[in-house]
Design goal:
Layout: H1 2-20, E1 30-33, E2 37-40, E3 49-53, E4 57-64, E5 70-75, E6 78-83, H2 92-98, E7 114-117, E8 121-124, E9 133-137, E10 142-148, E11 154-158, E12 164-168, E13 172-173, E14 193-199, E15 224-225, E16 240-246, E17 255-273, E18 282-285, E19 287-300, E20 303-317, E21 327-339, E22 342-344, E23 347-362, E24 376-391, E25 396-412, E26 418-419, E27 422-436, E28 439-455, E29 466-483
Antiparallel strand pairs: 1-4, 2-3, 4-5, 5-6, 7-10, 7-13, 8-9, 10-11, 11-12, 14-16, 15-16, 17-18, 17-19, 17-29, 19-20, 20-21, 21-23, 22-23, 23-24, 24-25, 25-27, 26-28, 27-28, 28-29
Length: 484
C-alpha cells in the first residue's frame, strides 16, 4: 500500500513538473496553452478548427489579435489561433509584452469589412444562381461581407436592414480587399440551424474543461459560426449564453406576402348601339371607393402565385335628364395568377398566366325614366400579364405591369344581341418603399378596360343589330405590404 502511494505521488510530481516547466523566451517567445484546446484557422469562433490540442504544451507565439482576445501560435504542424482564456496564467505576461496587432483579418469580429454592390443584383438564399431570391440589392448598396464559398465564386453578405444572403463575387466592389480575409464555408456564417448553449466559469488556471461547457467543435471539423455573439468573446467567461450556428442549409420555406390597400376609382360603364331609341346609348361615369387585398406566395416549385380581389362601391350616379334619380352599383375584380420569375441583371421579369373575373353591377332600371334600362356585366376568362420589377435604391423599388384578357361577357337582364368574345387590357405603374424589415408602403396607379361586341337583333329592341358594352376604370391604390 505504501509503495502504491509513493508511486502515485511520484506521478503527480512529474505531471506538475511538466506544467511548471517554463516556456522559452527570446525573439519568438513561447506561451503555455492548456489542454483540450481547439486551434482555429482565424481569431474568432466563426473560423473552423484546424487541429485540437489534447495536452497542454508550449507553443511559439506569432501575434496577438487586435482586441487582445486571441493569440496566434505555431509549432510543427500546429498553426492557428487560440483564445487568451486557454493560455496559462504564467504566459499572460508574455502576451502583454508582445502587444496587439495593429490590424486583423476581416470576418473574425475584430474588424468589419464592408463591400458595395457594383450593380443591381439579387440577394439569394443559397450560393447558386437558381436559388430563391430574397430581394434585389440596388447598385451601390453597402454590404457587410461574412464569408466566401470554398471556390470563391459567391460571397455571403448582410445589408443595412439585417437581411442575409448570397451574391456573386463579380457583382461586388471590393476596394479594400475585404474578401481575401473572409472565412470560407459553403453554408455561410449567418445561415443554418441554431442552437442555444451555455458556458460556466472555470476556475482560474484549471486546464481541464468544465463539465458544463459545450463542445462547439463540429465532428467534421467545419467552421462554427456565432453571429449572435461577439466572435472574439471567450468561452471561459461567467454564465453567458452563446448562439452557435452550425453550418448547414436552412429549411426551405414558403415566402408569403399580404397587401391591403385603399382604392379610389373613376369607373365608366358604357353602351353604344345602332338603335334608334335614345335609351339605347348611355354612359355612366362614377366615383368609387373600396378595398384591394392581395396575397403572393413563392416559390411554389419555380412559380410565383398571386391572388387579388378588389371591391368598390359606386356613388354619384344619376341620369342627366333625371338628376334626382339615384343609381347604385358595385364593381368587383378578382384574379389568380401563376408566374415564372426571370432574372435580368438587376431587373426581374415575371410572365403570368391565370384567371380573371370582373363584375360591374348597376341598378337595372332607372327610377322615373321611361325605358331607363341599364345593363350589368360579368366577365370570366383567361389573363396574360407581364410584371417588371426594378430596385432603384436599397429601400425603394418600382414595378410595372401590363396585360391582356380574353373572356366571355354575361349581361343582365338580357343581352343586346349575340355576344362575341370580350377583349380587355390593363396597365399599372407602382412603387414601394420599405419602412422596416418586412413592411413596405405601396402605391399603384392602374387603367383597365374590357369590351364585348353584340350582333343580331336584340330582344329588347329590334332596332339594335350592333352593340358594344364597355367597362373601364382609372384607379389609385395606396396601402401596406407585409411579409408573413
Amino acid at each position: 500500500m505504501k509503495k502504491a502511494i509513493l508511486s502515485l505521488g511520484l506521478a503527480l510530481t512529474l505531471e506538475s513538473s511538466v506544467w511548471a516547466a517554463p516556456c522559452k523566451e527570446g525573439k519568438q517567445p513561447e506561451i503555455l496553452v492548456k489542454d483540450k484546446t481547439p486551434i482555429r484557422r482565424g481569431p474568432g469562433l466563426n473560423y473552423g478548427v484546424s487541429s485540437f490540442l489534447e495536452k497542454g504544451r508550449c507553443l511559439k507565439l506569432g501575434e496577438v489579435s487586435v482586441d487582445g482576445s486571441w493569440a496566434r501560435v505555431e509549432e510543427g504542424d500546429i498553426f492557428g489561433w487560440v483564445p487568451i482564456s486557454a493560455v496559462s496564467k504564467e504566459s499572460l505576461k508574455t502576451l502583454e509584452i508582445a502587444g496587439r496587432s495593429p490590424s486583423g483579418p476581416v470576418g473574425s469580429g475584430q474588424e468589419r469589412g464592408f463591400v458595395k454592390a457594383d450593380r443591381a443584383v439579387p440577394l439569394r438564399k443559397e450560393p447558386k444562381g437558381t436559388a430563391e431570391e430574397r430581394k434585389v440589392l440596388p447598385a451601390g448598396s453597402e454590404l457587410l461581407a461574412l464569408s466566401l464559398t470554398k471556390e470563391g465564386a459567391w460571397v455571403e453578405v448582410r445589408d443595412t436592414r439585417g437581411e442575409v444572403g448570397w451574391v456573386p463575387v463579380d457583382a461586388i466592389q471590393d476596394s479594400s480587399n475585404v474578401l481575401q480575409g473572409l472565412p470560407r464555408s459553403e453554408a455561410g456564417l449567418e445561415t443554418g440551424m441554431s442552437r442555444i448553449v451555455k458556458t460556466k466559469k472555470k476556475k482560474e488556471g484549471d486546464s481541464k474543461p468544465d463539465s458544463g461547457s459545450p463542445d462547439l467543435q463540429p465532428k467534421d471539423g467545419s467552421a462554427v459560426a456565432n453571429p449572435g455573439v461577439d466572435p472574439t468573446q471567450s468561452l471561459d467567461e461567467p454564465e453567458q449564453t452563446l448562439t452557435a450556428t452550425v453550418d448547414g442549409p436552412k429549411a426551405e420555406g414558403l415566402d408569403v406576402a399580404a397587401t391591403a390597400m385603399a382604392v379610389a376609382l373613376l369607373p365608366r360603364h358604357e353602351l353604344d348601339s345602332n338603335g334608334v331609341g335614345g335609351t339605347r346609348r348611355y354612359t355612366i361615369d362614377a366615383t368609387a371607393a373600396g378595398v384591394h387585398l392581395e396575397a403572393v406566395a413563392q416559390p411554389i416549385g419555380p412559380l410565383r402565385v398571386s391572388l387579388g380581389y378588389t371591391i368598390a362601391v359606386l356613388s354619384g350616379l344619376a341620369p342627366a335628364n333625371a338628376p334626382a334619380a339615384k343609381v347604385g352599383g358595385q364593381e368587383h375584380q378578382a384574379k389568380i395568377m401563376m408566374g415564372y420569375p426571370i432574372e435580368l441583371g438587376g431587373l426581374k421579369l415575371t410572365p403570368e398566366l391565370g384567371y380573371a373575373f370582373g363584375l360591374f353591377s348597376v341598378d337595372l332600371l332607372v327610377p322615373g325614366v321611361e325605358n331607363g334600362l341599364l345593363f350589368s356585366t360579368s366577365t370570366h376568362g383567361g389573363a396574360l400579364d407581364v410584371r417588371l420589377e426594378a430596385s432603384l435604391a436599397e429601400s425603394f423599388a418600382l414595378h410595372l405591369e401590363g396585360g391582356a384578357q380574353l373572356a366571355t361577357m354575361g349581361v343582365k337582364p338580357v343581352a343586346p344581341g349575340n355576344a362575341g368574345l370580350a377583349v380587355g387590357f390593363r396597365g399599372l405603374l407602382g412603387a414601394s418603399y420599405e419602412i422596416s424589415n418586412g413592411i413596405a408602403a405601396v402605391v399603384d396607379a392602374e387603367f383597365r378596360q374590357i369590351s364585348a361586341s353584340f350582333t343580331g337583333a336584340a330582344a329588347i329592341d329590334p332596332t339594335i343589330t350592333n352593340a358594344k358594352l364597355t367597362d373601364q376604370a382609372i384607379g389609385v391604390f395606396a396601402g401596406v405590404a407585409l411579409e408573413l
